[in-house]
Amino acid sequence: MTFVFDAHSDMWSNVTTRRLAGQSHVFEQYHRRRLKEGGVGALIAAVWIEPDYTGDPTARMLDILGCAFCELRENADALGLIRRFDDMDRLQRQGKTAILFGMEGLSGLKGKTVFLEALYAMGVRHAMLTWNEENEFAAGVGAAQSFCGLKPAGIRAVKLMEELGMIVDVSHASEKTFWDIEKLATKPFLASHSNAYSLCPAKRNLKDEQLKAIAAANGVVCMNAWPDFVSTAAPSAEKLADHVDYIAELIGIDHIGCGFDFCDYLGDNELSFSENTQVQTPGISHAGEVQGFLRILRERGYSQDDVDKIAYKNIRRLLGDIP
């Protein structure tokens, strides 16, 4: 079975909802089996402020951080944090799921860039400046003023993240924010869950020049299984593989990864932002189906080494480039 690093998971949202309702050991009960079935041995688990909590993002951020670390403590036999480059390999040898703790937007910081120091001390090693909204740091793809990019706090945040050794993620960034980050960044950056705009013109997907810029920075673009980003008609695992084909032809196999953004465990409240009733892509609808997607790639002629690069090696390289 091919080892997989999934560069985007909203698992902490599910963990928090269930823990605040009185449950415990949520990972063991609701996530471990499917991750194991799909060979997903490492993932970026991100703090995401769901739409219902945007009125007080700081409170929700603190709830998620607290619940996540409770879960890590209770499941210490099955989970471990990636704090340094070699942690992923060590956790893999121990049979544990390796968690790279991330932030899907920084709205909860209220523009306080210095709090990134505290997040780093906790173990956070990755962040997007924004989800879809405009906040004190930058504009996301859903911002009303799409011409707005990095703000002064966002510039400080990118510089501090690079100084600390945190991955800068451009998924959810507006085009202006993307290009502002591209100009400012001195290290490789990541698009943790975005596909090719040329195949599916969703605003969350990346245009060809953006894909080329990520490759030029030695970054990685990770394939997203959310149906709206796969195809405008009849999304499927095969059509997600089309994005791999397209991006590989455009920028090369060394800059493609997996960031599936699975939503099978999220409820109506978390998914209230979506106007589409379809929230899963047939054939790649949850973590347990990941090996089937990789099989499609092999059937299309990708070598096992190519598949390994997409599944985990390219992300592993990125981790090594951001000490």
UniProtKB/TrEMBL annotation:
InterPro entries linked: Metal_Hydrolase (IPR032466), Pept_M19 (IPR008257)
The name this protein carries in UniProt is: Renal dipeptidase family protein
Molecular function (Gene Ontology), one example = metallodipeptidase activity
SUPFAM superfamilies, per database record: Metallo-dependent hydrolases
A Pfam family per the record: Peptidase_M19
GO BP terms: namely: proteolysis
